[in-house]
Amino acid sequence: MIKLFRALLLTGLAMSVATGAVVEERKPPALVAAKPGLAGQDMLSVMTYNVKGLAWPIAWGRDDALARIGDRLAAMRREGQQPHILLLQEAFTPQAAAIARRAGYAHVAAGPDVGMRSPVPAPPAASAFLAAPRWDRGEQMGKQMGSGLLILSDYPVIGVDRLAFPDFACAGVDCLANKGVLIAHLAVPGYARLVSVVNTHLNARKAALVDIARSQDAFARQADLVSRFVSDHVPHDHLLVLGGDMNIGGDADRKKAFFAAFAARGMDFVAPALGAAQRALTQGALPGRDTRRDLTHAVNHGKDWLFARDASGRAMPVAQAQVPFGTEPQGAPLSDHFGYAIAFAPDAEPPMRFASAAGARR
After folding, report:
1. Side by side, which strands form the sheet with 195-201?
2. Please, is 156 exposed, middle or buried when counting C-beta atoms within 10 Å of its C-beta (0-12, 13-18, 19+)?
3. Helices in the chain by DSSP H: which ranges?
4. Is residue 357 assigned to a domain?
5. Residues 49-86: pLDDT tens digits?
6. 275, 306 contact by CB (below 8 A)
7. pLDDT of residue 35
8. How many domains would you assign to the chain?
9. Could you tell me the residue range of the domain that residue 58 belongs to?
């Protein structure tokens, strides 16, 4: 019990703590309708949101905030404005996982659980890293929780791929959670092939409570692992959505490592100038001043990213952007991250009836 408490306490130090105050519910903003026959049915709307689903004593007051997140998404669904696909990070608690049911998503894919281990062998270059673990920062305490990754979908999940980050690719208190990569292959009406959706949460920098150089090494290895895993498990002719809490921030070395890893595997659609939120700001795909302000905050925060490519490998155009979970009319935001949604225009290939799930991985 003492060991677990210390692990939880260390994890709590790695996360910035929001107040968890109960706030007045605001009217859900308009997004792209997902109901048949409504405008925007040919678009694909995706939201990424780190919900800070942490248990006491790491954070407090989270049950109310998590319930409000689910209720707001349910209200958006009643108006036909919910994001079709929702990527959640830090969904560690039952209350966080309950967002799917509360919001009415019929299909859910979960990332690595607490027991999953990586089959990836350590490269020779990681020997020094592994030889100097920071046990006092949680690196040898074992996994105390799963990845916290969920993909919620209005569309059937045909296959799932998961990877837990190995010991040579995690640093500090981040090692207490079994972070990794989750890929859900979805059967989306109007698309000839499966749509592959990737959710991930990469290592923190200073908040990992180890030397910056050590957290940077872990981050660079994670970026390499994610890009390799996506390249190996998503066919090149599939529409691909990649998002999550990348923990890049304003660090130039992290930005270089992240984008170089994807470029090395031919995924040039993942580039700083092609981030969906950044494109929405530059293209003016925003309905109001409040949305622009909140999306600007998310872009400047540099943690939460969305990218998408069509079946030909090109970055998908941004049709619209919203921030359903940003600044609140009263009180604090519902998480220490903003949750934003991007509506992508359809890929270039003609709509076809989905006929086969062959080749998808379970």
Report:
1. 157-164, 180-186, 195-201, 239-245, 304-309
2. middle
3. 2-13, 62-78, 94-97, 99-103, 127-131, 212-233, 252-263, 276-283, 289-301
4. no
5. 999 998 655 666 689 999 999 999 999 999 999 999 99
6. yes
7. 38
8. 1
9. 2-344
Closest CA to 143 of 170, 108, 162: 170
- Rounded to the nearest integer, the mean pLDDT of the chain is 84
Q: Please say whether the beta carbons of 303 and 335 come within 8 A.
A: no
What pLDDT does residue 321 have? 96
Partnered with residue 342 across adjacent β-strands are: 46, 321
Domain CATH for 272: 3.60.10.10
Q: What is the DSSP string of 71-130?
A: HHHHHHHHTT-S-SEEEEEEE-SHHHHTHHHHHT-SEEEE---TT----PPPPGGGHHHH
Tokens 């916290």 found at: 148
Residues 299-307 have a mean pLDDT of 97
The structure tokens listed for 296 are 């600007």
Residues in CB range of 254: below 8 A, 6 or more apart: 205, 216, 219, 220, 247, 248
* pLDDT level of residue 25 (50, 70, 90 thresholds): very low
In-domain check, residue 190: yes
C-alpha–C-alpha distance, residues 217 and 202, integer Å: 12
Beta strand 157-164 with 195-201 is unpaired
For residues 263 and 251, what is the distance between their CA atoms, to the nearest angstrom? 18
Structure tokens at 83: 């994001």
Residue 56: its pLDDT value, please?
57
pLDDT in tens, 244-297: 999 999 999 999 999 999 999 999 899 888 899 999 999 888 888 899 999 999
Kindly state whether residue 361 falls inside one of the protein's structural domains.
Answer: no
The verdict on residue 225 lying in a domain is yes
Q: How far is CA 85 from the centre of its chain?
A: 11
pLDDT at 132: 77
